[in-house]
Every structure is written in structure tokens, then in C-alpha cells.
């Protein structure tokens, strides 16, 4: 009686021509994060402003998000280029209100802290991009 393959063995090893010694095909996979409208409305701010907004969001939920809404009116770029500046401003105000109103049950506070961390991450990408594209003196 011939032993049957164990459950842990791969099906590829049982197929002819697909043994374990075949080289990998070298497929490149690209992953893109799809953001909702509220997350995409987070502005790319200068790093010190983003840190201040994170600090404000940590101690007063929604306050840093509220302050970041005004940076949109000052010309900060977002991931929503097709929307008007006022629409993006009101999306940030809505996110701040959600954070303030749900802070009572801790959900808004946690969301506020994560929102501030996203601001700092975007600001670090913004500052790195600004260094790469600035002309050297």
C-alpha cells in the first residue's frame, strides 16, 4: 500500500512540473491604500504644525483636527485635489465634531490621537518631498 500525502504537504509538490525546486516568477505586486473622504481630507502640513495638532488632539479630542482645518484655508494640500477648498475645510470640521462628540465613550479620543498621528506621518512625507524637490543652493 502506497502512503498518501499528508495534509501539511503542498498541492504543488504533488503536481508534475511544479515541484519545490521551480524558481519564483518574479511578480511585482503594488499595494495602494484607498482612503475615505474624511481620511483623504487630512492636510499635508509643515512638521511643527502637525506635531502641535497631535499634541492638541491628545489632550483635547478634536481640537487639533479643528486647527488643521484652517490650514486647508491657508493652502495646505490634501489627497482630494478634485474637491473645492471649502468642501475639504468642512470635511475636516466634520471630523473634528465627530471626535469631540464621541470622546465621551473614548472612541473619539482614540480616533483623535490616530488622526494626529496621521497628520505627523503626512507631514514627514511632505517635508521629505519638499527636501527632494527644493533646488540646492
Automatic annotation (TrEMBL):
The chain crosses the membrane at residues 47-76, 88-115. Residues 1-26 are annotated as: Disordered. Keywords: Membrane, Transmembrane, Transmembrane helix. The keyword Hydrolase does not apply. InterPro entries: SPEC3/Stum. It is found in: Membrane. The keyword Transmembrane applies. It comes from the Eukaryota. It is a multi-pass membrane protein. Its main location: membrane. One of its GO terms (cellular component) is membrane. Pfam families: Spec3 (PF15795). This is STUM protein.
